[in-house]
Amino acid sequence: MWKDWIRPYVRPLPQWSVVAVAPPQQVVTATLHWDGHSADVTADHTVASLVPLVIATSLDAGQHPVLEYRDSASGKLLGFLRLVQATSIVIEKSTLTLYHVAAGEHRCLGWPLRPWNGWLQNRLMRKSRAPQHFAPEPTAVQQLMIAYLCPRPVVLVSVDAPGHQNIFPMDLIGPLQRSGLFSLALRNTNISVPVMREVRQVALSNMPAPMKAAIYKLAEHHKHPLQDWSALPFPVRPSREFGIPAAAAALRIQELTIVHSQEVGSHMLFLGRIVSDEQLEEGTQLHHTAGFHQAYRRRQRAPFGEA
Ligand SMILES: Cc1cc2nc3c(=O)[nH]c(=O)nc-3n(C[C@H](O)[C@H](O)[C@H](O)COP(=O)(O)O)c2cc1C
User: In testing the pocket of ligand 1, which one of 171, 193, 256 has its CB within 8 Å of the most ligand atoms?
Assistant: First the structure.
């Protein structure tokens, strides 16, 4: 159909693609390169803040490393980010390094579609940007999409304290493998931030892809606490050690003790240690990746399952 051919030239690709991936994702490998060294950081880097865009890792990769994303099967370069060291955080015996993103490019689309799609996406972002509303610059969103070349799993975070209970979706999360820490980057405006800093305990429900609609509905709880656990559209079960209500249908439930929290730009970066890990079900987990990544996979005739 001529419409299928013409569409990419008049309409931008969606920024994000919501996909079903069996965890842990191994489709894309992330590698840090610096001063003649390189290290696999597929399970050792995370987004710490969106404004400015900050990446955290438990490696010290020097002042100006490059973070590369490659298709694990073919080795094809999908994109890269140029990083600049900003600061470090010392927690117990671990040190995390925080990097600003200075530049980035992806290779999921060929020329001339790549610059043209970027231009269309940026134009749409500028048009729909409410002036007083929090929104990163289009260039930073393009760089964030590159960071999402490693599909990011979605979890529901549960908080349960006297007088405050909540459950909301997060994907700015991740293990920081070498340090044994696990990070959550939560917007400073999230209603549960002060409670999480105080009680220092959360449960993470790794959610099956078919529950996408229920998961997205819970995004409202970034602003409003949950009134009653029984009001949720799905059953809950107590987490193993802390007894925090978590989704009964979760593939996996992890409990996290928060050992450190600090503001990083627009987000509160929580760092914790996993105290329990219940593997409950096999199945695909809800993930987010960049729209141009899914377009690339489609061209390879290996698209991710749409959630
Ligand atoms: C699947 C999903 C994952 C999300 N992950 C995060 C996250 O990791 N950190 C965060 O601060 N907000 C996260 N959010 C919340 C949104 O970014 C946003 O703050 C929330 O929906 C409120 O929207 P608004 O303040 O833009 O109106 C997530 C939302 C959804 C639906």
Answer: 171
Q: Which residues contact 96 (CB under 8 A, 6 or more apart)?
A: 56, 57, 58, 88, 89, 176, 179, 181, 271
Token pair of 176, please? 């920081």
Determine which residue's CA is closest to atom 26 belonging to ligand 1. Answer: 134
pLDDT, residue 61, reads 98
Cα 176 to averaged position of ligand 1 atoms, centre (Å) = 21
Rounded average pLDDT over 28-44: 98
Instruction: Calculate helix-pair angle for 2-10, 113-127, nearest 10 degrees.
Output: 60
The string of pLDDT tens digits covering residues 267-294 is: 999 999 999 999 999 999 999 999 999 9
pTM of whole model > 0.90? yes
Pocket-testing residue among 155, 191, 222, ligand 1, by greatest number of atoms within 8 A of Cβ: 222
Q: What percent of the chain has pLDDT over 90?
A: 93
Which ligand 1 atom lies nearest to the CA of residue 190? 11
The DSSP code sequence of 10-27 is HSPPPSEEEEEEPSSP-S
Q: What is the mean pLDDT of the chain?
A: 96
Euclidean distance between CA atoms 143 and 118, whole angstroms: 11
Gap between the Cα atoms of 224 and 220, Å rounded = 6
| Spatial contact of 292 and 123, defined as CB atoms under 8 Å apart | no
Q: What is the distance between the alpha carbons of residues 50 and 62, in angstroms, rounded to a whole number?
A: 22
Which residues, 6 or more positions from 98, have their beta carbon under 8 angstroms from its beta carbon? 48, 54, 55, 56, 85, 86, 87, 88, 89, 264
Provide the 3-class DSSP secondary structure of residue 119: helix
CATH assignment of 152-286? Answer: 2.30.110.10
Residue 145 C-alpha from the chain's centroid: 10
